[in-house]
């Protein structure tokens, strides 16, 4: 049987079967949905490659300090400042993070830690720490992604002590998980560990929950 095609006013092609059966219409040009469009900006991707990210994470922690010199004073939770090993809470802080997805598996990052509270000791300032580094994504194609970081730590928290420098250097690792409902934003939890050694030997463990927005 030979079908005759005709165009209706809206541009839809209609095939007219010669035997009088019901006409078969095909979609008008431009009306076919584009492939790959979804909640992730039409890309179908869940990784962060090529994106710029901005994050905010409040947190708290706990620290241990081993003094190098008997003239140094460290803050201990039990009160006396003359102990060689001091343990105490890390005052509440907020980390502001900037990231760039160098590859789908690797981000270049810089975190700035700002103290929301102070140590319970005269003269010690609020935390001010810069932490540049890299972040590895272990499940980059999933909405739930595990990550780990390697970061340099430069602490500029004021100490107001002659025997204690206001500048401290160390290294940091943070491990966590992020949930990305959309490629544009995510919510994450992380656990971090910091080792510093210039001012005195210091170990810190901190936890936080944050949000990240990304573009494009």
Structural summary, described in words:
By secondary structure, this protein is an all-beta fold. The chain is 0% helix and 56% strand. It contains no helices and 11 strands. It has strands at 3-7, 13-17, 24-25, 52-66, 85-103, 106-115, 128-137, 144-155, 168-182, 185-196, 201-215. Strands 4-5-6-7-8-9-10-11 form an 8-stranded antiparallel β-barrel.
State the main characteristics.
single chain; 216 residues; mainly beta; eight-stranded antiparallel β-barrel
Please describe the topology of this protein.
Elements: E1 3-7, E2 13-17, E3 24-25, E4 52-66, E5 85-103, E6 106-115, E7 128-137, E8 144-155, E9 168-182, E10 185-196, E11 201-215
Antiparallel strand pairs: 1-2, 2-3, 4-5, 4-11, 5-6, 6-7, 7-8, 8-9, 9-10, 10-11
- State the order of secondary-structure elements, H for helix, E for strand: EEEEEEEEEEE
Secondary structure class reads: mainly beta
Q: What is the residue-averaged pLDDT?
A: 85
The global form is elongated
In whole angstroms, the N-to-C terminal distance is 53 Å
**Relative helix content:** under 10%
Query: What's the assembly state of these chains?
Result: single chain
